[in-house]
Amino acid sequence: MTLEEFFKNAPRAALGLSGGVDSSYLLYAAKKYGAADILPIFVKTQFQPEFELRDAQRVCELLDTKLEIIELDILSFPEVARNPADRCYYCKRRIFSAVAEAAKEQGCELLLDGTNASDEASDRPGMRALMELSVRSPLRECGLTKAEIRSLAREAGLFVWDKPAYACLATRLPAGETITKDALERVEKAENALYDLGFRDFRVRVFASAARVQLKERQMPLALERREEILSELKPYFEAVTLDLEAR
Predict the structure, then answer these.
(1) pLDDT digits (tens, 9 = 90+) for 194-246
(2) 247: three-class secondary structure by DSSP
(3) What are the beta bridge partners of residue 33?
(4) Cα dihedral 10, 33, 140, 58 sign
(5) 141 and 191 part of one domain
(6) Which end of the chain is more exposed for a tag (fewer CB within 10 A), N or C?
(7) Does 101 share its domain with 216?
(8) Is the residue at 167 inside a domain?
(9) pLDDT at residue 35 tops 70
(10) What domain count does the chain have?
(11) Residue 43 forms beta bridges with which residues?
């Protein structure tokens, strides 16, 4: 099956839009192949940094599509905030339940997400939630891999085609450690600071009261060159700042 065939048989759908390359390309494909009633929905929680929302808005502007934004206090759900090993299952279920509710209000029953054929279902608790809620993943169903989607997105002129994969802010805290709004805000501010210093595709992970910075190997020299600036920017948020020598 191709995406064109999929959308010819699914003229109306709601899409959970994350601002990443996968769901953005899926929105483009839906518009290209005739799903005129596609409804992109961005669920804003404490786990999504502001730049993800901005990217989702830019994509929708580019594709002349109205974006629906839902505010969801994800930390109000104890099963999410306590951060168990399968936290992603509970989080994804809450998020797509919100998507389903918003879609139903507009008479739309088919729910879509941007999971692709490179994503391993066996080790992703979130995929179990998607299956339980009958969310379909056209990119995966059509056998499109991450590399293929990036290439197609580039051909389509989508600015997110080379955007690094981004795991939500909750992944920066160790499993079993309660997630707080303060911890998430400190991580987001620290990562914004590193981005402004020229770093790309990195993580700031919380380890006790310290920040553990994970970089790509090619950016290790830049970290040493800008060591003082990194410390100056991150120390307001963490008692200690460390560099993980096991490159991402």
Answers:
(1) 999 999 999 999 988 899 999 999 999 999 999 999 999 999 999 999 999 88
(2) coil
(3) none
(4) negative
(5) no
(6) N
(7) no
(8) no
(9) no
(10) 2
(11) 70
